[in-house]
Automatic annotation (TrEMBL), chains A, B, C, D:
InterPro entries named in the record: Aldolase_TIM, Class-I_DAHP_synthase, DAHP1/KDSA, DAHP_syn_2
UniProt domain DAHP synthetase I/KDSA: residue ranges: 80-318
A biological-process GO annotation: aromatic amino acid family biosynthetic process
Protein name, per record: 3-deoxy-7-phosphoheptulonate synthase
Database matches in Pfam families: DAHP_synth_1 (PF00793)
Domain of life: Bacteria
EC number: 2.5.1.54
Species classification: Bacteria, Pseudomonadati, Bacteroidota, Flavobacteriia, Flavobacteriales
Alphabetized SUPFAM superfamilies for the sequence: Aldolase
Record keywords, A-Z: Transferase
Molecular function in Gene Ontology: 3-deoxy-7-phosphoheptulonate synthase activity; aldehyde-lyase activity
Length: 332, 332, 332, 332
């Protein structure tokens, strides 16, 4: 249950109520807000006078639910706004992994030349084998920060586990909670304590219910700047890497107030399918796209098969502008 | 392996070769064509002189493969062409089930008013429970035929099992092999012996490999007029009815020469998601869409939750025209 | 809803009631029984006096439900009883496909030497490719019938589609409705009209709900002799052919009154795993096992990798006796 | 590739080789062992003389592979040995969550009375909702340590994320890497640096390949004491909580040298299915079982539906002894 407290309730009383109800307390849109589990369906008589308004729920999707707030949330990212009614599809590009200054600089220049604003690049790679390239780590983070400085790009990189979350928060503009780290409360709770935007990727074995509940860890901890990212679920089909769940995206758009970004590169796993899928996503009016691009995909240290080269990325951006236009959106 | 025989080889010799190689023999594009399993990788020396050209394959996707024929096949349906390089997205509409003359007539009038050409309506419903509405059967088929007569629409309906396949072939313009009947060789072999267009729906537990192999039953039996239809696969996600596999569609477009039609209604299972998904499909440049529409979805005898009303269908058609235009396609 | 009519209600009245309620009418355990969909929760006042007892349900699992009948059904197969409280695990053995008289005779002799009673062998193979071995068809059925004659074995073979269901019913002692044919109402309705035992295999993309509902087609049509067979579902895991769903078996044992047989050979897909899985199944107190055995698996025309040779099958039978003994069962 | 170095190679040279080959260096079974990725198929000529023996692999399953070591590894846990050729099935019991001293003491007494040796109890619960009970944390760990002291039991508890891994390592005898934390390199690398036994649970969306590769993080980091735990994968079936993958267990037993433990409680999600599934697992000759038991399951703070009460647990232990005996195993 979500409870908006009346304006006059003082800090001490809020503390008491928070403890009593075993609730989370946040300030949201200039209100003092308490949140308990969805098991609570009515408010105790004793506190009726202190509550301005309340919402009951069927499940623990509460702050993210359109029942609580119908308007889509906005997340400010430098000059760019994600979500809301901006009708922006933010095209986030860059390599799977940061591999060198030369490589990440070339990606930055590509984005600038296309008037794009957000650069992606993995530094801590959540590889499933210890014998694969594990990412450049802190050195990579510093290269991203350098690019931000030089090119005025916002940067996004993935937190793999809780051991380096502080560094990620420090160096990036959007914290990406990776698909394999999505249940990691160490990460989610750290994200709740900052006000930086957080992009949560859906785990490939994760239901929509669990996915949105992960966002509740961040929202109920006090950070309202959450973006969801669908990147493909694991099914019986093996000809493609994962299965992009656009039915699920339609559900998220209908039942949650969070901006939704899509990652067709990871879903497909093969470059030939990235452009048609990106167009499909764009036609749904999504709030953003994550597309992997590499100066020379064949020699990429990770995900070689799915990264576009710069020519393909440039052509795709142009095509997406046309599709976005057809549904009243703009690629930014 | 596919073998194109030279022009001079006579009927008796073709028979001998067919028997010897345990092959299928068809006439395709004015050639005598033999097809064996993909296990055959080289042609016997003895027949080298009689073979004009041959293609070896890694798997039993052969006639449908772009290795054999890169150009997308066309399927003629009255005045409408599905597939090829027409850049047509054929919008097939109509109710889940034929329920009455009044109902199917209203759907026909809707389609005519929107300049659409193909009417859908189930007569033999493949329900999973014996206690649900099973369809109007032959009576429904006759209603569809009447609509074809009166409105000049092509009609499509589903074959549920082999016991009524002859009726389906007789009364409809496109034979729909249902998702639950997709492995039914009784149906597939009957479809192979006609030259009517056949739309094969992917089973919800069916791999892309098996799906395309089902088309090989029809193609290798002599009917080249096959269309594939993706309608959602079954995954762990339960908030939507199925998961529309657009990654799979990208694969089909890349590796097969068959036209591909999509059915977002069955995939989603809920009307609110049909429009966004239909737009997504259209942006991929697909050859057609199957969209369920009912004069009053709330009282529909099957699939009530996923059918659009006529106002929604009309609005969707208009929106799809804009999206189709953005990728160089036309809704017909 | 299931309604037991009182003893005095006459045939004409039963007909009336059947029509009125859109019900199925069967004789079961010396009662006249009407069955409607689960949507019906209360009985009309007008017929209260004619109804002896009735059962309402949450879903269309009705005749198969333990709510209706707690005791497990028995299916008589020659001298062997499947199900009930016999504590029999019927070990059904034989090759994937009938390939020759010599082959199927050797399997028959193996079974006789081990005091087993039921021989399996496919005649119409539901292959997913037209270019694979499709089975011996009618000729195979005749060989099975010959073995029954000579060795006194009951025989089981699979119906692939409705075109040959009459032959299957004629020649076999248990009709196997294959995993790919499980939704085929042509087959299910034909099975409902005979009183021969019917073994329904779960489709690999089929929920337990749909699986048991398939049995309702047969039961509500008048044939009470249904056995369910779990043979593995399709999941994201590819190191094994399918995933044997023993959680599902526990559910079937708890909530349905149908005997349950397991097919670890098809689930696993590899001979090395058949023995451990067969032991696991046996320890659950299942009513039967289907195990593929071939005189020389390496040259088998289908499913070569998963068939046991006769030595392995013999050793397994011995091991299963010990495991069965530990849970109070007997291998027959 | 795994390389066993000859006895004489000195520390400095080992360092050089490790750097040169980008290898992991461990001491295993009194050898100096280097491990590189499976991409390396042959050894450089320059080091041939220093290498005693080497093994090449198809995939990054290397140290865990039967190609490298056929004999099953043993993990010593106080007096109990898990794995090897002991033919022990270690029955680990206890509540889902540690809730109070009284509760965990009663579980300890139950285990002692049944001559069992390992107590489970969650302290950091990886809940998918922030509004659910999150576990007692450090306080719970201290209770587990107290029980170990008083009852001589080994204790196992789950690491949820990397923020508390040091505490887990300090207080428990087996570190459980939870299903949702299985890709967490912060945890895996911490586990690699201790020599305490590590039980890795398979993620519900995790392939067998990825599952075993997770163990390679620990093994290649120097800790040989790894046990795998299958606890059910997520499939389309919803009548049970997950689907226990015993086909996968057969694969693990055939292709890896790691002890395998099963968790039927989490797989099933309902108490009625735990006993039949536990018997099934036992009949496969597994190295252990994790079974949840609670003094009063109805009031449990987590997983109420799947925990056995003490009477059921006691009866199950007795039944498992009989089944274990049938396959030559002993419950310890």
């Amino acid at each position: 249950m979500i409870l908006h407290l009346k304006a006059g309730v003082n800090a001490q009383r809020i503390n008491e109520l928070t403890t009593e109800l075993k609730a989370f307390h946040i300030r949201y849109q200039e209100k003092d807000v308490l949140i308990t589990g969805a098991g609570m369906k009515t408010i105790p008589v004793a506190i009726e006078k202190e509550v301005e308004k309340f919402w009951a729920f069927d499940s623990d999707i509460q702050l993210a639910s359109t029942i609580y707030q119908k308007e889509k949330r906005t997340v400010q990212l430098g000059d760019v706004v994600i979500g809301g009614t901006t009708n922006h599809t933010v095209l986030i590009g860059g390599p799977c992994s940061v591999e060198s200054e030369e490589q990440i600089r070339s990606a930055s220049e590509l984005l600038k030349s296309l008037n794009l604003s957000v650069l992606r690049g993995g530094c801590y790679k959540p590889r499933t084998s210890p014998y694969s390239f594990q990412g450049m780590g802190l050195e990579g983070l510093k290269l991203l920060a350098k690019m931000r400085e030089e090119y005025g790009l916002a940067v996004i990189t993935e937190a793999r586990d809780a051991t380096h979350i502080d560094e990620i928060i420090e160096y990036t503009d959007i914290i990406q909670v990776g698909a394999k780290a999505m249940y990691d409360q160490g990460i989610l709770r750290a994200c709740a304590k900052t006000d930086k935007p957080v992009l949560i990727k859906r785990g490939f074995g994760t239901t929509l219910q669990e996915f949105v509940q992960a966002s509740e860890f961040v929202l109920s901890g006090g950070n309202p700047n959450v973006v969801l990212c669908e990147r493909g679920i694991r099914t019986f089909e093996t000809k493609t890497r994962f299965t992009l769940d656009l039915c699920g995206v339609a559900w998220l758009q209908e039942y949650t107030n969070l901006p939704v970004i899509l990652d067709p590169s990871h879903a497909m796993g093969y470059a030939y399918g990235v452009a048609p899928l990106a167009k499909a996503c764009t036609a749904m009016g999504v709030d953003g796209l994550l597309i992997e691009a590499h100066p020379n995909p064949k020699v990429a240290k990770s995900d070689a098969s799915q990264q576009l080269n710069y020519e393909e990325f440039t052509a795709l951006k142009r095509d997406l502008e046309t599709v976005a236009g057809a549904v009243g959106y703009k690629i930014v």
